[in-house]
Design brief:
about 450 residues; about 50% helix; 4-stranded antiparallel sheet; 17 helices; alpha+beta; 4-stranded mixed sheet
Length: about 450
């Protein structure tokens, strides 16, 4: 399958108008077995509670039956099991669908096919869920647009409930630009319409993508490629008097403009553009702010008070200066994200305070190392260290509530940490060090 996917990618790149046929044939027994093995183990099962390990007990027969049903067009995805996860920084819950393992296999196969085609079409301003691209890459190129280009205004936009409002008819129209295989399109449509189970009741899905499904990220990227990326590149930028840039990670995006008039015109046009595709902006989370080298001057001239900030990918961006006194955009951990993480840490410590203290400490260390890998970027070590200190205080508090007798005073706690110190926060990502792929984009 990998060789055939490479050939499809080559054709997609060399022939942008080409439509692909007979793609569903790639979902054969061999490729689906490979997809099965690539899926992670010990994940939450769907409504039938069949795990990867259980499915593997009779893998040959299960895969053979799956392929047979797909050829007979009788295969239909099982409705996903709806659950809810906390939304960082709020009391709201985010819906999440957990598919059956068999459906995950098929979704992975379809996602590979779609990626091989659309990776050649996606624009350079898109970073979410794409090979060899990360959140840090998106932050780096945004830094360049603000620091090195003529950015004076930022449109910080948010699409309201994007994954729940994707129009299925529009989605299928977009796919048909590149895919002319009715069997593959039928499979994708069935996943979109698969529905979900909640509290024993079946609900239909008339809009939205299957959140939690493997196929969801690539479908979201395809949808926004046509709705937002191409429109910004082919229409918005050409209508702007000055420079204009967009950086998008999944449904989260930031736009940079040289002139305020261009930013305001884009904001008005964006509202109408999204409405055309049954989407809308969250007005309470969308704003136009002066930002960049002349932000302070523009704020004073327009009587807008203090310099404003904006959040993107878990970081608060703010205007500052380098050690030499030159303008520089700096990043710090988003307060909302940090508070949500600390709340999660507190709840875990409270529930596990009677566990062996060394096991609790090892778990906290692993959690901090993961936090450092993402948040230890240029200029943010002070804020990460502050987060570590708050975790340390929570650790002290809940280890002293293991029983009626206190385990520590501060002196004993200091001795414990001297022997078993927390990981030290050091810069992991230099936001001014660009990969060759990013340099090519610029």
């Amino acid at each position: 399958m990998e060789t055939k996917l490479l050939r499809i990618a080559e054709l997609a790149k060399s022939q942008p108008e080409m439509k692909f046929t007979s793609l569903v044939d790639l979902l054969n027994e061999s490729s689906l077995k490979q997809c099965h093995y690539e899926l992670p183990s010990r994940k939450a099962p769907g409504i039938h509670q069949i795990t990867k390990e259980e499915y593997e007990l009779d893998l040959e027969s299960n895969i053979s039956d799956l392929v047979k049903r797909m050829k007979q067009k009788s295969y239909r995805p099982t409705p996903v099991r709806r659950t809810y996860i906390s939304k960082p920084g709020t009391n709201k819950k985010r819906p999440l669908g957990i598919p059956e393992h068999e459906d995950k296999i098929v979704q992975r196969g379809i996602a590979k096919i779609l990626n091989s085609i659309y990776e050649q079409d996606f624009l350079d301003n898109s970073f979410g869920f794409r090979p060899k691209r990360s959140c840090h890459d998106a932050l780096k190129i945004l830094n360049v647009y603000i620091d090195k280009r003529y950015t004076n205004y930022i449109v910080d936009a948010d699409i309201k409930g994007f994954f729940d409002h994707v129009d299925h008819n529009r989605m299928m129209e977009f796919l048909q630009h590149r895919i002319d295989d009715p069997n593959l399109l039928r499979l994708i449509a069935r996943f979109l319409k698969g529905g979900y189970m909640e509290e024993g009741m079946l609900f239909k899905t008339e809009t939205g993508t299957p959140q939690g499904g493997i196929i969801s990220p690539i479908l979201a990227n395809i949808y926004l490629h046509y709705v937002l990326d191409l429109w910004f590149e082919k229409v918005v930028r050409k209508q702007c008097k000055g420079q204009a840039y967009i950086v998008r990670y999944a449904d989260d995006f930031v736009c940079c403009f040289q002139y305020k008039d261009d930013a305001e015109a884009f904001y008005r046009a964006l509202t109408q553009r999204l409405k055309k595709f049954n989407l809308e902006i969250a007005e309470d989370k969308t704003k136009i702010i002066p930002f960049g080298r002349f932000a302070e001057t523009n704020c004073k001239r327009n009587g807008e008070g203090n310099l404003q900030t904006f959040d993107f990918l878990g970081f608060t961006h703010y205007c500052s200066k380098s050690q030499t006194g030159k303008f520089r955009v700096k990043l710090k951990s988003s307060g909302k994200k940090m508070r949500a993480k600390l709340k999660e840490c507190k709840e875990w410590l409270k529930a596990n305070r009677t566990t062996d203290i060394h096991e609790v400490k090892r778990r906290l260390d692993r959690s901090l190392v993961g936090y450092y890998k993402y948040y230890c970027v240029t200029d943010n070590i002070k804020h990460v260290s502050n987060f570590k200190n708050k975790v340390r205080r929570l650790f002290f508090k809940w280890m002293n509530r293991r029983s009626q007798k206190k385990s520590f005073n501060w002196e004993k706690f200091a001795l414990f940490l001297k022997r078993f110190p927390f990981p030290v926060a050091r810069t992991k990502v230099n936001l001014f060090e660009l990969k060759s792929e990013i340099n090519y984009i610029l």
